[in-house]
């Protein structure tokens, strides 16, 4: 399995596979990706619509970490460089917006590999991401890699469905007391 970071994805075959994989995973997200207007949409409680193509067209302008088995796309993580938003306060950062692993390749550590690739390529930048509070597989990866919960938005995705923001910061951005113990 090859893990590859690409800052601009132009390969038409990979873009088609990426769209197909996005469609395959669409309904596994809360809310589904096809009900969102963008990868960084703030309000997630009510479906704004737009369909998967609106979401895909914005997402394909981002950077990617890809998992490739030969010519087959096994999974991906898209991310934005220097994203600013209400819940992402630092300017020089990475914002992991979307990740999908094909069911045939799950349980092989690809999500962990995606984050590790980003951490290795951009060691001086904090990495932010968000998910919902019961996305246990993703949360386990984040906690194992040292991400910290930075914000919880109650009922943000609907009644009883909370959005959680996580951040992985380089050591020098941590609290001064932590820095002194290094």
Protein traits:
single chain; 182 residues; alpha+beta; Aminopeptidase; 7-stranded mixed sheet; 5 helices; 7 strands; disordered C terminus
The CATH architecture designation is 3-Layer(aba) Sandwich
How many individual β-strands?
7
CATH class: Alpha Beta
Query: What is the strand content?
Result: 25-35%
Question: Percentage of helical residues?
Answer: 25-40%
Q: Which topology does CATH recognise?
A: Aminopeptidase
Radius of gyration of CA atoms, rounded to a whole number: 16 Å
Category by helix and strand content: alpha+beta
Biggest sheet descriptor: 7 strands, mixed
Q: pLDDT average, as an integer?
A: 84
How many separate domains make up the residues?
Answer: 1
Question: Kindly, what is the distance between the CA atoms of the first and last residues, rounded to a whole number of angstroms?
Answer: 35 Å
| Arrangement of strands in the largest sheet | 1-2-3-4-5-7-6
């Amino acid at each position: 399995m090859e893990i590859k970071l690409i800052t601009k994805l132009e390969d038409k075959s990979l873009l088609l596979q990426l769209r197909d994989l996005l469609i395959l995973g669409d309904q596994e997200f809360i809310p589904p990706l096809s009900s969102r207007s963008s990868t960084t949409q703030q309000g997630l409680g009510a479906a704004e619509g737009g369909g998967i193509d609106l979401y895909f067209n914005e997402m394909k302008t981002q950077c990617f970490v890809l998992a490739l088995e030969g010519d087959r796309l096994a999974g991906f993580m898209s991310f934005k460089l220097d994203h600013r938003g209400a819940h992402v306060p630092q300017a020089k950062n990475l914002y992991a917006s979307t990740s999908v692993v094909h069911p045939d390749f799950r349980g092989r550590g690809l999500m962990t590999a995606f984050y590790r690739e980003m951490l290795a390529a951009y060691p001086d930048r904090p990495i932010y991401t968000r998910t919902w509070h019961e996305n246990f597989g993703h949360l386990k990866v984040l906690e194992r890699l040292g991400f910290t919960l930075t914000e919880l938005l109650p009922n943000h995705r609907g009644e009883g469905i909370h959005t959680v923001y996580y951040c992985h910061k380089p050591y020098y951005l941590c609290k001064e007391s932590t820095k002194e113990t290094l």
